[in-house]
Design goal:
Shape: globular
Strand content: under 5%
Number of helices: 16
Structural class: mainly alpha
Order of helices and strands: HHHEEHHHHHHHHHHHHH
Largest sheet: 2 strands, antiparallel
Strand order of the largest sheet: 1-2
Helix content: over 70%
Radius of gyration: 23 Å
Number of domains: 1
Number of strands: 2
């Protein structure tokens, strides 16, 4: 172990003592961001398993297996970006300030790396708050509890930092948007995380709607909220790739990863055979979130497998994203890509309502034509605002040709 430490120390010392080649350093940045992105697969799988664990088993400890998977992504990501910050700061101290870095106190790194560190650090802090929350309020849980919202917000910061960081680094290295380019695969993978994040966060809307018997706007709450929030990442990606169809491709990967996560969850339960600490609680509290979630998933026909329910909710966006993909055929839309935001948002509400008519658990919801129009208007306006913000984020990392590396 000592020999390994001394070897790493010599490598760092030599690196700081010799000029760093700019292209090689940018490739190092890109590899770092991809490594963090691949680590986030543990976050994706652990998050999906965590919901199933909460509903089927309960939350008896902070250190349950799905949380351990999430911690691998969090702690691994923090360790990697800390190492990069230390390295770039050391280079700056040695008089080799690298391009595209920002300085925060005595430290230097790219803005995206600092943002990833902030996001993951805030998420780890939120996990501690979540533990206290459950100690105070018990094992029942809602996705919209304050600590869960904190963790979700932190995850969004990490997702967008990875998306923008990979895009900026790949462009500096001269990669175009082709199927065999790191830019393509980076946007595809991180885009899936961003899409899943919105679906995950808005999942509680279905439970809220079910509690209120789907009355009016309650019955359309999920598609309305997704219609508002998803254009943030959708329009960022459209601006980066100039491809309207990329959203549909990303959704396909997102659903595939969700099925993978559901399979891992089922296998984990089969191997570990955890004892439920919430079954008795559900029997005594039929109006609890866990009980209502079980009821709703059962009505949809998923036999309590929340992961399949989540995959189904993701699929609701497919028809609206198909409409967005068709915009690629319209020259005017290609010149004004922001039109994709309201097309998706309004389509999400209207097409979901049509879909609901074929779902026994939802077709009896008392939703009027006026409710659909109001929900579509709210979703369209909100989606336009969020879509414009997404385009601005993408524009922020666009580099002039003079900034491209040789």
């Amino acid at each position: 172990m000592l020999a390994g430490y001394l070897k790493v120390k010599r490598m760092v010392t030599n690196a700081l003592a010799h000029p760093v080649e700019e292209v090689a350093h940018e490739r190092l940045r890109l590899r770092l961001l991809f490594t963090v992105a691949f680590l986030k697969l543990f976050n994706f799988i652990g998050g999906a398993w965590d919901i199933q664990w909460h509903v089927a088993i309960g939350r008896d400890s902070l250190f349950i297996p799905p949380h351990m998977l999430v911690f691998i992504a969090f702690i691994g990501g923090v360790a990697l970006v800390l190492a990069m910050i230390a390295y770039e700061s050391g280079l700056a101290t040695a008089g080799q300030v690298q391009a595209h870095t920002v300085k925060i106190g005595p430290f230097r790194a790219t803005g995206e790396v600092f943002a990833i560190l902030f996001g993951y650090s805030f998420a780890l802090l939120s996990a501690g708050v979540d533990e206290m929350w459950h100690r105070i309020f018990g094992i029942d849980a809602t996705l919209w509890s304050p600590p869960h919202l904190m963790i979700m917000a932190a995850t969004v910061v990490v997702d967008f930092s990875l998306l923008l960081g990979i895009t900026a680094s790949a462009r500096r290295l001269g990669y175009g948007f082709k199927w065999n380019s790191p830019l393509f695969w980076g946007v595809l993978l991180v885009g899936a995380y961003a899409f899943e994040s919105v679906n995950f966060q808005m999942g509680e809307a279905f439970i809220v709607g079910y509690r209120n018997r789907g009355l009016g706007l309650y019955g359309l709450l999920f598609p309305m909220m997704v219609g508002v929030m998803l254009p943030l990442s959708l329009m960022t990606i459209v601006r980066i790739t100039r491809r309207f169809w990329m959203g549909l491709l990303i959704l396909a990967l997102t659903i595939s990863l969700q099925f993978l996560a559901t399979g891992v969850s089922a296998a984990g339960f089969a191997m570990l055979k955890p004892v439920s600490v919430i079954d008795e609680y559900v029997r005594q509290n039929p109006e609890s979130t866990a009980a209502v979630t079980r009821q709703f998933a059962s009505l949809l026909g998923f036999n309590g497998l929340i992961g399949f329910h989540q995959a189904w909710t993701m699929s609701l966006a497919a028809p609206a994203l198909a409409l967005v993909a068709l915009l690629q055929l319209i020259p005017w839309a290609r010149r004004h890509p922001i039109v994709a935001a309201p097309v998706f948002s309004v389509g999400m509400v209207v097409l979901s309502y049509v879909w609901f008519q074929f779902v026994p658990a939802l077709q009896q919801y008392p939703i009027s034509a006026l409710d659909v129009c109001v929900a579509a208007a709210i979703s369209g306006a909100g989606g336009l605002i969020m879509g414009d913000l997404g385009q601005r984020l993408a524009k922020w990392i666009e580099e002039p040709e003079s900034e491209m590396l040789p």
